[in-house]
Amino acid sequence: MRDLPSPQTDRPLPRIGHHTLPNRVILAPMAGVTDRPFRQLCRELGAGLVVSEMVTADSRLWNSRKSRQRRIHRGEPGPRSVQIAGGDPQMLAEAARLNADAGAEIIDINMGCPAKKVCNKAAGSALLRDERLVADILDAVVAAVDIPVTLKIRTGWCAESRNAERVAKLAENAGIAALAVHGRTREQRYTGSAEYDTIAAIKQQVSIPVFANGDVTTPQRAAEVLAYTGADAVMIGRGAQGNPWLFREIEHYLRTGDEHASPCAEEIAATMQRHLRALHDHYGEYLGVRVARKHVGWYLAASDPSREHRARFNRLEQATQQFEFLHELFRGDAAIGNGIHAA
Ligand SMILES: Cc1cc2nc3c(=O)[nH]c(=O)nc-3n(C[C@H](O)[C@H](O)[C@H](O)COP(=O)(O)O)c2cc1C
């Protein structure tokens, strides 16, 4: 990818329907990760838009604890984007309606997820193989709600059928308000590197906002990808795990061309504590303690090569023990705090 200038101040900020985003950095939907506590944290640290974990379009399944918890977004700052996944146009339309009634301000349709569970039901990225069905779904969902509908896709099913450009056109014609593209095919899952040529080609062909997704983990990379593709924003998934500060760092770099200072050990400790508290509150102590293990594992990944700290943390069963652990970790060795951000 060629080197290009970083400040991105000369172009209008992306709009999704009547919502103008405050910047060009978006948190990608990640099932099991972008729950309400994590969305809130990323928003506070500079994400211009956050997208919820996907919710199945089959509302008969919404009474499970997991679905109920995923659908709590009332009171969150806007715009609240809720992702739905499924393969049946009418079911997706009904799910969009119900989520809009429950406070969603943007509906995002998942045609990017490679997960088996979703694909066995011909949903997620499996839909890309059937352009007729894609069009039917987009028409049905757009007609069902009076809030903007966005779409998230991969570049295609496999290398031989990279049809994202055609799908992007279908999306624009159907009235989709913005399109996020992960620069991999479904067949690639998460292997290899994301490619951005398809995203650049799509951007040339449609006039709706395009968000570039895949392997963006640094401010410099974000600037390169925006410049190379002409996309309106970058969407960040795995790069934000254990590193919610990435959003403000990218935002700052895109706006000024300068690097934002890394968070100091005190800020890292305070952020992790806030995150833990929010997880315990959101899920209750039993589940919150378990969900916290995953996030703390990501925070500690770079500073704990022997996995000793993570193994200890994972054995803790109570919320207070988790707070004490963090307290000791940062009191005992500030270098650990400083090392965390290298993740
Ligand atoms: C744990 C995990 C869960 C994901 N869940 C979803 C999902 O619910 N909906 C979706 O559209 N994409 C999902 N994705 C894909 C991401 O949104 C994103 O497209 C992908 O991770 C590539 O971006 P990245 O390289 O910045 O991580 C998930 C990815 C991960 C790693």
From TrEMBL:
The active site is at 113 (proton donor). InterPro entries: Aldolase_TIM, DUS-like_FMN-bd, DUS_fam, DusB, DusB-like, tRNA-dHydroUridine_Synthase_C, tRNA_hU_synthase_CS. Pfam families: Dus (PF01207). GO terms for molecular function: flavin adenine dinucleotide binding; FMN binding; tRNA binding; tRNA dihydrouridine synthase activity. Residues 26-327 form the DUS-like FMN-binding domain. The keyword Flavoprotein applies. The keyword Nucleotide-binding applies. Its EC number is 1.3.1.-. FMN binds at residues 29-31, 83, 152, 182, 213-215, 237-238. Gene3D superfamilies: Aldolase class I (3.20.20.70), Putative flavin oxidoreducatase, domain 2 (1.10.1200.80). It catalyses: a 5,6-dihydrouridine in tRNA + NAD(+) = a uridine in tRNA + NADH + H(+); a 5,6-dihydrouridine in tRNA + NADP(+) = a uridine in tRNA + NADPH + H(+). Its cofactor is FMN. It comes from the Bacteria. Keywords: Flavoprotein, FMN, NADP, Nucleotide-binding, Oxidoreductase, RNA-binding, tRNA processing, tRNA-binding. Catalyzes the synthesis of 5,6-dihydrouridine (D), a modified base found in the D-loop of most tRNAs, via the reduction of the C5-C6 double bond in target uridines. Belongs to the dus family. NCBIfam families: nifR3_yhdG. This is tRNA-dihydrouridine synthase B. It comes from Salinicola socius.
